[in-house]
Amino acid sequence: MRHESRADALSRPDVLGTGGGVAAVAPSRRASERFATLFRLHAPELKRYVVRRLGVEPADDIVAETFAVALQRLESYDVSRGDERSWLYGIATNLIGRHRRREIGLYKALIRTGADPVIEPFTDEVEQRVSADGARRRLAKALAGLSRKHRDTLLLVAWTELTYEEAATALGVPVGTVRSRVNRARGKLRRALGDIDPTAADEG
Asked: DSSP string covering 37-70, please?
């Protein structure tokens, strides 16, 4: 019998437990159906985002907890804020924040070795345009040097195809704040990489 991960189990709301500090709930049938649709549509891309930020090991647990939180709050979600995709990324980003040391540790490993799968989404583009050795290390150092708020905002826009408006919804900040954070973060990356911006083509 195939082992069922927390994320797989959570796709069935009837088996939602209390893992990750999230209390068990008994969702309505309508909420359960809506939840199952959200999970099917968004869980794979959310997992890819978490893997890019933190590596493989914690991804299933963070995705599971993201959807556990979402299920608790789904019936009270204000649809005027837009679709739930941005909201889910916001929850996941907050949970990722608990693992800041792990994320910075992965960047530091890349600085030392020049190879780490977490940074791959940027490196292909960079390596096509930068011939100097150490581009990966410089990029990792620049990302590690960003504040959590600036890194979260930049990577939401660059890695998830969220628009500035959607990222603002995800983070609960004004859209002007998103623009400011992204501009400042991209400026630091450009300086670190000799005026090349590896996030420009990814911007939503």
From this structure: HHHHHHHHHHHHHHHHHH-STTHHHHHHHHHHHH
The per-residue pLDDT for range 53-89, each reduced to its tens digit, is 888 888 999 999 999 999 888 877 777 777 789 999 9
**In one letter, which amino acid is 76?**
S
Q: How far is CA 193 from CA 62, 129, 179, 196, in A?
A: 31, 10, 21, 6
Interatomic CA distance for residues 30 and 105, integer angstroms? 42
- The Cα–Cα gap between 166 and 84 comes to 10
pTM confidence score: 0.71
Whole-angstrom Cα distance, residue 30 to residue 37?
Answer: 11
The dihedral region occupied by 114, where left means phi > 0, alpha psi between -120 and 50, and beta the remainder, is: left
